[in-house]
């Protein structure tokens, strides 16, 4: 088999294996994924938030959504979304726990109709990270710590994801999406990412 690798050096110690599984993540492969277009360079990171039902944390509903098992009758919010086929590469729980649903080399279905700098279908070339939360609820210390750590991991493995190519879902789907929302502290996150001693180029 010929594997197309986006990695500058897969043995560089990024903590991400050749298929794009992050060390330290709990692996739960979702069926909602497929192959990226051939020879795609992975060069965008998209930050989201999700909670099901919105504002309730810690349940199994996000898993249920990503595994197409969401009970439309369990909550009024679920009915219109139960049949939607979605996933993300990674989810960071309120306690900082990291769950990976899709290997980074594969295409997760997180962005929907989207465009970055005029280039559409961001799912093709991006990695999606969901933070368990809402637009208005402050994210936890543990989530920022984990997000920064996995951003560094991802940037080491996928150097085309420069700091300027880290965006929110709202940035690539304006008018349709608002996440990660005003409660997400971009300044704090970008400062922490930019302070990386990882060797990633930041200028
Ligand atoms: Zn989103």
Automatic annotation (TrEMBL):
Residues 1-20 have a biased composition (Low complexity). Keywords: Cell wall biogenesis/degradation, Cytoplasm, Hydrolase, Metal-binding, Zinc. SUPFAM superfamilies: N-acetylmuramoyl-L-alanine amidase-like. Residues 1-38 are annotated as: Disordered. NCBIfam families: PRK11789.1. GO terms for molecular function: metal ion binding; N-acetylmuramoyl-L-alanine amidase activity. This is 1,6-anhydro-N-acetylmuramyl-L-alanine amidase AmpD. Its main location: cytoplasm. It catalyses: Hydrolyzes the link between N-acetylmuramoyl residues and L-amino acid residues in certain cell-wall glycopeptides.
């Amino acid at each position: 088999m010929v594997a197309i690798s986006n990695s500058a050096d897969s043995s560089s110690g990024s903590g991400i294996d050749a298929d794009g599984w992050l060390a330290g993540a709990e692996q739960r492969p979702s069926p909602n994924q497929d192959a990226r277009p051939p020879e795609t360079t992975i060069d965008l990171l998209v930050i989201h938030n999700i909670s099901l039902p919105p504002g309730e944390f810690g349940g199994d509903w996000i898993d249920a959504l990503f595994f197409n098992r969401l009970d439309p009758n369990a909550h009024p919010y679920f009915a219109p979304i139960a049949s939607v086929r979605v996933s993300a590469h990674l989810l960071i729980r309120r306690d900082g726990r990291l769950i990976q649903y899709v290997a980074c080399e594969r295409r997760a279905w997180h962005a929907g109709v989207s465009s970055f700098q005029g280039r559409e279908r961001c799912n093709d070339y991006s990695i999606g990270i969901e933070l368990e939360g809402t637009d208005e609820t402050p994210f936890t210390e543990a989530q920022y710590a984990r997000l920064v750590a996995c951003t560094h991991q991802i940037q080491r493995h996928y150097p085309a994801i420069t700091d300027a190519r880290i965006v929110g879902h709202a940035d690539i789907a304006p008018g349709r999406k608002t996440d990660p929302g005003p409660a997400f502290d971009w300044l704090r996150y970008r400062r922490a990412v930019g302070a990386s001693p990882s060797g990633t180029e930041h200028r």
